[in-house]
């Protein structure tokens, strides 16, 4: 269920949000990152993802988020669960006066074909190696955390 702006603002201010992050790896071992348009993490490179809505199962959210972030609906059974993470931000979608706390379910997808990457949440997309992700200053530390210890 989508919330009106005032209700959502109250939730962000007083409760953690549950989200799904998508670690998309191509056949060359590169990972898809997008440059975020919105707070938090605005203008930084981040893996695609989105919030789980109230009343929505994780599987339903996964299909909706893959469609909205990748332009292709994908079943959760195609993904490997990578773990639970927490992300804390000093700002939020609403500005710098409200912090954001996410409980993140990270999932990895490999060799997903026919992506139709929308520009709703990201200004650009890049495919980067693990080393590039860890070396680039404009990759958000929470994204880097998915790859620490994975340089081949």
Q: In terms of topology, how is this protein built?
A:
Layout: H1 5-14, E1 17-25, E2 31-36, E3 45-46, E4 49-51, H2 58-70, E5 80-89, E6 100-110, E7 122-128, H3 130-135, H4 141-144
Parallel strand pairs: 1-6
Antiparallel strand pairs: 1-4, 2-3, 2-7, 5-6
User: Which CATH C-level class is it?
Assistant: Alpha Beta
Q: What is the number of helices?
A: 4
How many angstroms does the end-to-end distance come to?
42 Å
CATH topology: Nucleoside Triphosphate Pyrophosphohydrolase
Percent in helix? 10-25%
- Strands ordered across the widest β-sheet: 4-1-6-5
CATH architecture: Alpha-Beta Complex
Low-confidence stretches: none
Mean pLDDT: 92
Structural class: alpha+beta
CATH-wise, what's the superfamily? Nucleoside Triphosphate Pyrophosphohydrolase
Count of β-strands? 7
3D shape: globular
DSSP strand content = 25-35%
As a whole number of angstroms, the C-alpha radius of gyration is: 15 Å
Q: What is the number of independent domains?
A: 1
Q: What summary fits the major beta sheet?
A: 4 strands, mixed
Query: H/E order of the elements?
Result: HEEEEHEEEHH
Describe this structure in words.
- With 152 residues, this protein is α+β, with helices and mostly antiparallel strands.
- It has a single domain (5-144), classed as Nucleoside Triphosphate Pyrophosphohydrolase, CATH 3.90.79.10.
- Helices cover 22% and strands 32% of the residues.
- It contains four helices and seven strands; from the N terminus they run αββββαβββαα.
- It has helices at residues 5-14, 58-70, 130-135, 141-144, and strands spanning 17-25, 31-36, 45-46, 49-51, 80-89, 100-110, 122-128.
- It has a four-stranded mixed sheet, covered by helices on one side. Strands 3-2-7 form a three-stranded antiparallel sheet.
- Strand 2 (31-36) and strand 3 form a beta hairpin.
- The longest helix has 13 residues, at 58-70.
- The protein is globular, with a radius of gyration of 15 Å.
- The mean pLDDT is 92.
């Amino acid at each position: 269920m989508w919330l009106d702006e005032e209700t959502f603002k109250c939730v962000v201010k007083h409760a953690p949000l549950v989200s799904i992050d998508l670690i998309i790896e191509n056949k060359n071992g590169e990972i898809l990152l997008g440059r975020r348009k919105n707070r938090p993490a605005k203008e930084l490179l981040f893996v695609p993802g989105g919030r789980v809505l109230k009343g929505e199962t994780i599987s339903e959210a996964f299909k909706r988020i893959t469609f909205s972030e990748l332009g292709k609906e994908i079943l959760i059974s195609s993904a490997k669960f990578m773990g639970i993470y927490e992300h804390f931000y000093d700002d939020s979608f609403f500005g710098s006066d409200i912090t954001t706390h996410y409980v993140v379910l990270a999932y990895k997808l490999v060799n997903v074909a026919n992506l139709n990457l929308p520009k709703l949440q990201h200004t650009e997309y890049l495919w980067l190696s693990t080393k590039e992700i860890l070396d680039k200053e404009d990759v958000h530390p929470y994204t880097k955390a998915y790859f620490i210890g994975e340089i081949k």
